[in-house]
Automatic annotation (TrEMBL), chains A, B:
Lineage per the UniProt record: Archaea, Nitrososphaerota, Nitrososphaeria, Nitrososphaerales, Nitrososphaeraceae
Residues in Nudix hydrolase domain copies: 8-140
Keyword flag Ion transport: no
Keyword field contains Membrane: no
Protein name, UniProt field: ADP-ribose pyrophosphatase
Top-tier EC class: hydrolase
InterPro entries reported for this sequence: NUDIX_hydrolase-like_dom_sf, NUDIX_hydrolase_CS, NUDIX_hydrolase_dom
Length: 150, 150
């Protein structure tokens, strides 16, 4: 059984937290992609559901409580993370308290709401630019996405 | 790094293959849930995308080629599989060739199209009954699902 475990990708979760025309982004404190913008997220622990993992990760990195809206997609291209083969489940969510202020913590060096109109002016960690592009399509179609889907 | 790998759930993929009011089900050849009905699916290999894994698993178990329509949901309740913590990405798909005949192979002892009206008359492996119930909601709403979402 131990050898089998090495042959599977490792699951993570990420969140698009939406507020009208803005989404919440963090500046990464650590490598890979240190100092670049990224969606909040992280590894799923054993015995933790993905829907619990994303709420916990967002709380740890931003201090915000979120509610989940939909699954945007599952991204699993083995080249999306330079460390190893990492699969991510991406949720669309919203803050529970619309007036709560995000505070950068844990793996986030800084945090900011960014208007989707300004996405082109930034570079993103991992495949998060593709994920944000897919989210912009999702706002119109409400369809789901994966790494090789255009 | 080796200890970290043991702390993550293991990813699998499953498919709802739809044909009008029917879906394709297999009878499991092996434990757990030997002889019970289940959705076709299996483990995601390292360096394989989830969208590739589900096409491969359906081909291996049914000989059918499928195209993917949407992601139905991601199910990761640690109690959904008696062996270990297994997370599954569930796709909705359709056969590429509408006249191709499914042939049971690999982990499938038998295979059959089942009308959704007859779902209540059967028992299912894992949490596949919940997944099929969610699919019936999806046919109306096109929303996405997870283990703790009703």
């Amino acid at each position: 059984m131990s050898t089998k475990l090495y042959k599977n990708p490792i699951p993570t979760v990420d969140a698009i937290i939406q507020r009208e025309s803005e989404i919440l982004l963090i500046k990464r404190k650590k490598d890979p992609f240190k100092d670049m913008l990224a969606l909040p997220g992280g590894f799923v622990n054993e015995y933790e559901k993905v829907e619990e993992a994303i709420v916990r990760e967002v709380r740890e990195e931003t201090t915000l409580e979120i509610k989940l809206v939909e699954i945007l997609g599952v991204y699993s291209d083995p080249k999306r993370d330079p460390r190893k083969h990492i699969l991510t489940v991406v949720f669309v969510g919203e803050t529970v308290n619309k007036n709560a202020k995000a505070v950068a913590a844990d793996d986030a060096a800084a945090i900011s709401w960014l208007d989707l109109e300004f996405i082109d002016n930034h570079s993103f960690a991992f495949d998060h630019r593709k994920i944000i592009n897919d989210y912009m399509k999702w706002r119109i179609s409400h369809s789901t996405f994966w790494s090789s889907k255009n």
